[in-house]
Amino acid sequence: MHSPILVQSEVGRLNTVMVHRPGAELENLMPEYMARQLFDDIPYLVHAREEHDVFSETLRNCGVTVLYLEHLLKEAIESSSCKEELIWEYVREANIQMTGAEQLISEYLSSLPLDTLISTMGGGIRKSQLPSNAKKHLVDYIDDAYPFYVDPMPNLYFTRDPFANVGTGVLISRMQNNVRQRETLFAKYIFKYHPIYRWVRKWHDRTDIHNIEGGDCLVLNASTLAIGISERTSPQAIELVANRLISPQTGITRIIAINIPKIRAFMHLDTVMTMVDVDTFVIHPNILSSLRCFVLKKEEDKLQIEESRLPFVDLMKDALGKNEINLIECGGGGVIDAAREQWNDGANTLAIAPREIITYSRNYVTNRILREKGFTVHEIPSAELSRGRGGPRCMSMPFIREPI
Catalytic: which of 217, 293, 330, 394? Predict the structure, then answer.
């Protein structure tokens, strides 16, 4: 039987991808609590959906099968009758402060049709949605100013982060922020109960104790994985994953850990560099001087870690087995253009195939340079989607890429 997951590169022709069309979770963002939800602005849902629909249609026009997170989760629940189990776990992880409200919320969620249940879980639960007669304890009155029983998950449309498909297996994230950790609950149920994906091997699970997020994982080729040491992925998690992944069975022989600055603009490795060809990266020029890279390998089944003495370009040549590596600077390398376009995810491209990519139209300097170098660039609108600080790669989770 062919594996339903096959990702051995960043640029092999994309066959199947998972996305999430933005929903009510964006309408439950409030200015007072944006930092809590990891947002800098509030997207307008109507236009965000229109932009996302263009993204999905662009993928289809390129011959890609588009799966939706909510559809996969629904199929998993229907095939296994695990609705009540999911509700129990969701409520348990929601950190509900109002005493006794767990039962009220569980009953409310159980009463919903499956489609509505899934969208409600992502959207969060306002206090105004439920009866107000549940107040019995002092804390219930003191906490009344906060308008939610359960926080929304506005980052859901960044499907790259809750898990990462590597080879024929999946790495389910442990997210650094609690507000995003609940997103991985959906991944858990897809890979536990979905009739197609329940058999997929797990390289990392959401219950592992160290943080790692999918946006930090780049599959350079069938034998090499790059993982960012970022504000959201810890070196301990990378070491754990290396111990599990590096083996003759997986074909992975090394992991390159890339230490990047721990700031909001560089939240994941894929916000500062992505691959657009087998030997070419789009990269934010401002980070090159600060990168420290570490190579993790195994000798006699024992993990060996060594800081690379090679310059970044030479390390990538060695990793990819290439005589030359090309770096295309986001924003053309100019200080102002590079900073602006990296903030708007100019370095966060999604490869459809070698030298064929999807980008945000707003990053016109980077897009022009890519076209001048012979790349096919599919631009999508992003006035609203970009407010969440994530680009086309962030919004996509490849399930199958054709081998190179």
Answer: 394
